[in-house]
Amino acid sequence: MLPETINVANGKNDLHVDDEVACDNIRKNWNEPMFHDGSSSLMQTYFTNNSCNPINVQGDCGIVLYVQYTTDVWNDQDAIAGIAFARMHNIRLFIRNISHDYLGKSTGFALEVSAGVQVSEVYDYLEKQEYTAIGGECPSVGIARGYISAGGHSPSSSLYGLAADGISELKGIFANGSKSTASPSKNHDIHWFLSGVRAVVAGTLAHIKSLTFRIFPDFPVPSVIFTMPYAGILTNDEFWTMVDTWHSIMPNITDAGAYAYTFY
User: Collapsing DSSP states into helix, strand and coil, what is residue 136?
Assistant: First the structure.
């Protein structure tokens, strides 16, 4: 079965208002990563020419650049069947892990997780065991596939490096339908390719079904939020001078083992 994509905001924006309560709910949550679950909406709509954006409506509210059909993968056979169908009908296939996806495509003690597991679930589980992991800052980030294949930056990266550095084993299903396990000592070339080369390229090689990665003893994390004023308060030159100053001190923060994340 191939579920057809129906945009979350389709029929629920300023162009096609038919349920104002639903519209308000969509606008209120549109910038929350956890709201974008599945192929029906993307975290960054400019990757789809800003189509069907309920806050800043531009153009038609249709499928446009969204994926048209999806297949739900619950086991190996689902993945094998989906890959075989795409190959048989010469359909472009994009392997997606979980909802946190800007493009719409996701030694020591170790933990094995399956594709589709979000870092919030990993953190919650490990906290009870008094451990933590190198994972994304946002709770909706999926550990397997895109995050790992792109390297995997984390609030703990200044201490423990990138998430991809701690992968001891990956299990995947390849384009020809075969299954394989890769580690530094077995199929090491595949392990290297899937561990931080490039998210989009890695998705053309295999569907990552699970991976095993290092975990670390838990530790307390204090945090500070620094908000820069802008509209009606600072001039453009003053604002960008403040941004330059902030960027100049960030290396000192990370060198001290802390973490600095900026969102504009």
Answer: coil
DSSP letters spanning 3-37 = PBP--TTTTSSTTS-S-HHHHHHHHHHTT-GGG--
Decide if 185 contacts 107 (C-beta within 8 A). no
Enumerate the β-bridge partners of residue 182. 170
Integer Cα distance of 206 and 227 in angstroms: 41
Q: Positive or negative CA dihedral for 39, 44, 50, 56?
A: positive
Pairing of strands 179-182, 167-174: antiparallel
Per-residue model confidence as pLDDT tens digits over 147-165: 887 888 898 888 888 888 8
The model carries a pTM of 0.60
In the chain, count of helices (H) and strands (E)? 8, 5
Residue with tokens 């992991």: 133
